[in-house]
Amino acid sequence: MLANLKTPAQRHTAIFYGLIMVGFYFVPVFSDNFYLLSVFTTAYFYIIFATSWDVFAGYSHLMNFGHALFIGIAGYLTAFVDLHLGLPPLLVLPMCAVVCGLLGMFIGYLTLRMQGPYFAIITMAFAAVAYESAIMFSEYTGGEEGIPGIHPLTDSLIGDYYFVLVVMSLIFLFLLWFTRGRWGLVLKAISQNEDAVLASGINTAWVKIRAYSISGALCGIGGSVYAYSLTHVGPTSMEQVLSTTILIMAMVGGMGTITGPFLGALILVLFNELSRDMEEYRLLIYTVMVVVIIFFAPRGIVSWGQPIARAFKLGGKRGQAGS
Amino acid sequence: MELIQEIIIFGTIKGCVYALIATGFTLIFAVAGILNLAHGTFYMLGAYFTYTLFYVLGIPLPPAILLAAVLVGALGMLLDRVFLKPMRSSHTYVLVLTVAVAFAAQEIILLTYGSQGMNIPNLIEGSVNLNGVVVSWHQLLIVAITAVVLIMLWLVLTRTRYGVATLAVSMDEDGARLVGIETEKVFNLSMFASAFLAAVAGALISPIMSMTPEMWNMPLMKAFVVVVVGGIGSLTGSIMAAFFLGWLETFTGFVISPKLTEVVSLVLLTVFLVFRPSGILGRRLH
């Protein structure tokens, strides 16, 4: 990661996100308002979901329309393990990561060996069928009501806040490290010309499968913490709307950057809270937003970073692409 | 014996609806390379437009269905012209754009009609006893209409200039353009046909299943499954796969457990992706 801090623009980017991160840790110092903390916690969850979506779909441009599948599977797994076996969260989180990673590997094995639109279709189909099944098999899943009564992570709201924040920070740092190296490069190359990557002796299918599996595993950790934090899991955690919201957050922020989905998720969650009285129009606003972004800023809001920094005489010279 | 009859009859009815949805979905994919995630939306709009034309404007049901399907077809053309045309080269943006359209439509329907289920009446009331199995006339009519619509589609595709041009574009877009086919026009008309077929399916099913703003989701999934099982881009394959899925789902629902009907399609999809990813009639993929 340090290797990526050569130019002033990159250093400014790092300082910018560093400050946001540090700021997050100080929020409870200034206020222990229940509402404020829960808004931020929600934002951290969406940051986990959107950045873990980005590490595969954003970099490879293979659209994942069913990311919420991992949230739901991890949530239900957490509920079962917590209520029936009583294992502590620190054991359950890695378990969810492994299960979701394997699930990602399975779906990836089915679809990513072939070129073509299979991946988008199948991610959507798996999530939809999982959602339907969660409602149908109500004797195990509680149907539409879901499973209540999962034990909370810690005793206090502040404790929960820090737990989620630490998980989010670790995932974010891991993803930055992971994508700024060889992996990110190979995935981006695959999105541009898969045959060329194949010709340079890289097993592209396997690279994609592993990246998708990592994406699933990280989202699984997020989904598990999400279930603990809500002390409840229900079929809504796998809804198509949730998958699409994650995708829109990542796209609005800027795909294939990790920092973009981070900003996108943060901004949209805060926007969402500020526009509570327009609740019913939310999805409509989101969809209009994504259409506008696609047509006018296809690289997302992170691509505005450079011009803004220049306007404040911060960034490097024109043409130095920092991400 | 009665069980087998029931499975065949009700599976065929289900298969007809799947066939109507999936042929349109395959058509636009084969011709324009558009994987249209708003296809389920056309299905939904077909039902809601028919409802509005019938109850609000008081148009008799058969012309209302036809008019609704034409309107939805026109909307499909509009979607293609305005949103998809500038972005057609990128699979990513087509996918995201169409899913955005699907959700926007869901929200608009939700805000306009509310979330409660609604129905339109049967085209023909009453039912008939087919050798011990009671089937409503409307269900039999679905089979008849599907047969007529699919035969007409086949005639259009093989016997008219438009149809031959469409087949040419689906085989080789650049080649078709070189011999003077206006590909944009072909894309547009295919979008019309695709949306029209989905809307007819939506209107025909809504006396049997109530319409809700979320009704677009599952048919879209079924269309996916049918298209992959039939072979991506193959119309005949899609029709075969639609009936296959209809029968298999009905069989599972009747013999094993009704709860498993929605899982059938996923199992079928998985089996095909592992053992025969090119589908029943698809070209071999790499």
Please, could you describe this protein's structure?
The complex is a heterodimer of chains A (323) and B (286). With 323 residues, chain A is an all-alpha fold. Chain A has one domain. Helix content of chain A is 72%, strand content 1%. Chain A has helices spanning 8-30, 34-60, 68-85, 89-111, 118-136, 138-141, 157-180, 182-192, 194-199, 204-230, 240-253, 259-274, 282-296, 305-311; strands at 147-148, 232-233. Chain A has a two-stranded antiparallel sheet with strand order 1-2. In chain A, helix 2 runs parallel beside helix 7 (157-180), helix 2 runs antiparallel to helix 12 (259-274) and helix 4 crosses helix 5. Chain A is globular and about 50 Å long. Chain A starts with 7 loop residues before the first helix and ends in a 12-residue tail after the last helix. Chain B has one domain: ABC transporter involved in vitamin B12 uptake, BtuC (Orthogonal Bundle), CATH 1.10.3470. Chain B has eleven helices and two strands; from the N terminus they run ααααββααααααα. In chain B, helix 1 (2-32) runs antiparallel to helix 10 (235-256), helix 5 crosses helix 6 and helix 9 packs parallel to helix 11. In chain B, strands 1-2 form a two-stranded antiparallel sheet. Chain B starts with a helix and ends in an 11-residue tail after the last helix. Helices cover 73% and strands 3% of the residues of chain B. Chain B has helices spanning 2-32, 39-56, 61-84, 91-113, 137-159, 161-171, 173-178, 183-205, 217-230, 235-256, 261-275, and strands spanning 127-130, 133-136. Classes of the chains: A mainly alpha (323), B mainly alpha (286). Chain A binds chain B through residues 61, 63, 65, 110-111, 113-118, 120-122, 124-126, 128-129, 132-133, 136-137, 240-241, 244, 247-248, 251, 280-281, 283-284, 286-288, 290-291, 294-295, 298, and chain B through 29, 35, 37, 83, 86-87, 91-93, 95-97, 99-101, 103-104, 106-108, 110-111, 217-218, 220-221, 224-225, 228, 232, 259, 262-263, 265-266, 269-270, 273-274, 277, 285-286.
